[in-house]
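Troubleshooting: if your tokenizer reports a length mismatch, compare your output against this known-good record of 265 residues.
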Amino acid sequence: MILRREIKRNLKGLIIWSIVICGIVLLMLSIYPQMAEQQKGLDAMLEAYPDGLKKAFGMDKLDFGTLIGFYAVEVYMMTTLLGGIYASMLASNILVKEQSEKTIEFLLSKPVTRTRIAAEKWLAVLLNVMVFNAVVVAASLIGFQFGRDSGVDAGTFALLAVGGFLLHLTFAGVSFLLSAIVRRSRTVVSVSLGLVFVTYFFSIMAGVSEKLDFLKFVSPFKYVDAAGIIKNNALDPVYLCIMLGIIVLSVLSAHWYFNRKDISV
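Known-good structure output:
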């Protein structure tokens, strides 16, 4: 009942976000053939970029002339950031809105436990994030057809897709925990979005200067850095464990806190 209600409630948002992200992915990949034909001009343009800017976005490690390099710089960074925003907005509001909209009284009057409420709401978040990432993958596969003879290694693309999905779940998990703790909907959404933007800024700063390299440990965006995944053809196992740990701990903590939360009915 709760799962079906949440899916129906968030369907419009999911469709809008899916259309937008699909359009962005296809638009960016449709540019690639023209960029590839002007390789010399592109190389000259990249050479003119400041070293700090190239390091910040991994352009010093990626071959921008290849389809996968172009995808990593122009598409992957965009989808990870927008996906993080979508996942945070969705998860941060899903528990707290019941109190904000006074519908928690209706829910708790039904023969359902708080554990079930939290579990079905997290499942709704999980399904929405999965669909969002499936749309990104499908749009990317279609967009790769614009590259004509430029092939993309399926294994490398799969790693990028998994990395993006785990990144979005990491932000969703933390935002879900905040949703269980905070009482005001506006506050939790603002904090969750702030977390996404601050950690994205940290990932850029970590790439700009070696003195700020330590920031990569507090930015999930660095955990799934496209340059590292393409270069090593693997996800870093340490970062993988950190992300899975954050997701599991956040969701379990959200359940624990929601079960003990003082909710007036």
